[in-house]
Design a protein that fits this description.
It catalyses: a 5'-end ribonucleotide-tRNA(His) + GTP + ATP + H2O = a 5'-end phospho-guanosine-ribonucleotide-tRNA(His) + AMP + 2 diphosphate + H(+). Adds a GMP to the 5'-end of tRNA(His) after transcription and RNase P cleavage. InterPro entries: Thg1_C_dom (IPR025845), tRNAHis_GuaTrfase_cat (IPR024956), tRNAHis_GuaTrfase_Thg1 (IPR007537), tRNAHis_GuaTrfase_Thg1_sf (IPR038469). This protein has 295 residues and is of the alpha+beta class. Helix content is 45%, strand content 14%. The protein has one domain: Alpha-Beta Plaits, CATH 3.30.70. The chain contains 11 helices and 6 strands. It has a 6-stranded antiparallel β-sheet, sandwiched between helices. The termini are far apart. The model has no long low-confidence stretch (mean pLDDT 92). The chain binds guanosine-5'-triphosphate and magnesium ion. The site of magnesium ion (MG) has 4 residues, from strand 1.
Length: 295
């Protein structure tokens, strides 16, 4: 086809490629969810329907994109992690972020009437999400990122649980509750919950305390006792030269991933145990599909 005089505009398209051999995290976040949650009367501080809906949308994103190794969500945000050796997609930030955000938003709206069946239907302004991509060069950086989000979940949830207990059960107004919690430590909040309201924070739902983690489920392995299993996987995944896999090998792995069940759990992802028992998350190699799961 002949070049047109307009074609020069292509030069304006600049690369936005993400550094090779790094872990890519795409985090999305609900836009204006403070207002949105009020409009649809989300329960405070945690609305089970809203969190289940976020999880359902994230699970669908994962099943459409087998390159995502793990996802973690809390409140109106979700982080999706691409393995550093994953080569099946273009490492372009804009392409990756827009694919994830649009797929997630589409499913969020699709699932809305299922999770909010007794609520009013969605009307404009419709829910939307922003997104960003960040690359992490080492397994430790990636694990610290995941730990950061889960610690954030814990801190916010303990604060919000205490804050709303003071208001809903203690009859306080927002300003007084805020003043009371100013400068308090975790132990103080646990104490307020227990002494004033008989609430044992430990008995709060796991989803509220830990957030949600989504991954493909294979047969778990016993954590190694001799050498730290996570370190071993981390060493393997931290090679300077990215592993080159043949096309057939990549296809085989993709197929194995597609077969695996995608689960939503509420586990501690800060401690080594979570990663040790599930070496496929860091190694990028699919594990064994449990027998009872095979079609
Ligand atoms: N009541 C209730 N509100 C929630 C729940 N999950 C998220 N939210 C709301 O969503 C907000 C998320 O925080 P942000 O992302 O910082 O606030 P935002 O209004 O979405 O602002 P931007 O992200 O900057 O657009 C919280 O402050 C809550 O108001 C929930 O389960 N229940
Ligand atoms: Mg938000």
């Amino acid at each position: 086809m002949a070049n047109s005089k307009f074609e020069y505009v292509k030069q304006f398209e600049q690369p936005d490629s993400l550094l090779p051999n790094t872990w890519i995290v795409v985090r999305l976040d609900g836009r204006g969810f403070t207002k949105f949650s009020t409009k649809y009367a989300f329960e405070k501080p945690n609305d089970m329907r809203a969190l289940d809906l976020m999880n359902a949308a994230a699970r669908s994103v994962m099943s459409e994109l087998p390159d995502i190794t793990i996802a973690y969500g809390v409140s109106d945000e979700y982080s999706f992690v691409f393995h550093k050796s994953c080569t099946l997609f273009e490492r372009r930030a804009s392409k990756l972020v827009s694919t994830i955000v649009s797929t997630f938003t589409a499913y969020y709206i699709y699932f809305w009437p299922i999770y909010f069946k007794d609520s009013k239907p969605l009307t404009p302004p419709l829910p939307s999400f922003d997104g960003r991509a960040v690359t992490y060069p080492s397994v430790q950086n990636l694990r610290d990122y995941m730990s950061w989000r889960q610690v954030d979940c814990h801190i916010n949830n303990l604060y919000n649980t205490t804050f709303w207990a003071l208001i809903n059960k203690g009859g306080m107004d927002g300003t007084t509750a805020e003043l009371m919690l100013k400068g308090t430590f975790s132990a103080d909040k646990n104490e307020i919950l227990f002494q004033k309201f008989g609430i044992n924070y430990n008995n709060e739902p796991e989803m509220f305390k830990k957030g949600s983690v989504i991954f493909r489920e294979y047969e778990m392995v016993e954590p190694e006792t001799t050498k730290n299993g996570v370190e071993k996987e981390a060493e393997k995944a931290n090679t300077a030269v990215p592993e080159v896999k043949s096309k057939s090998q990549l296809e085989k792995e993709k197929k194995a991933r597609t077969k695996a069940k995608i689960v939503v759990e509420h586990l501690d992802i800060i401690r080594d145990e979570f990663w040790e028992r599930r070496p496929w998350l860091l190694s990028g190699k699919p594990g064994k599909v449990p027998k009872e799961q095979k079609p």
